[in-house]
Specification:
The structure is a single chain. By secondary structure, the protein is of the alpha+beta class. It has one domain. The protein has two helices and seven strands. The strands form two sheets. It has a five-stranded antiparallel sheet with strand order 6-5-4-1-7. Strands 2-3 form a two-stranded antiparallel ribbon. β2 and β3 form a beta hairpin. It starts with a strand and ends with a strand.
Length: about 90
């Protein structure tokens, strides 16, 4: 599960790619008082195949959310919503 980001991304060598694959690397959950905090680390790759074959990532980033309750629905769906807020243009890759 991941997203294909269709925003331009400039590589270190100056070349620009028009899409890349982003997936959740790991999730950390903390209880802070009456709230639950979700910390999500993501990794971005040139493609899903690159990610699946263990090739190096383009970049890593993090995002998260705070909730008063633990969500009843699929936690990954909620957290991917947070990840999607980092990008303007993307498609789901399930």
């Amino acid at each position: 599960m991941g997203i294909i980001v269709t925003d331009n991304y400039e590589l270190e060598n100056g070349m620009t790619i028009t899409d890349h694959y982003v997936r959740i690397k790991d999730i950390k959950i903390f209880k802070l008082g009456s709230n639950v905090q979700y910390h999500v680390n993501i990794s971005a790759y040139t493609s899903k195949d690159t990610a699946d074959t263990g090739k190096p990532f383009l970049y890593e980033n993090c995002t998260g959310m705070v909730s008063e309750t633990i969500p009843d629905e699929n936690i990954y769906s909620n957290l991917y919503t947070c990840v999607k807020l980092l990008y303007e243009n993307y498609t789901d890759d399930i």
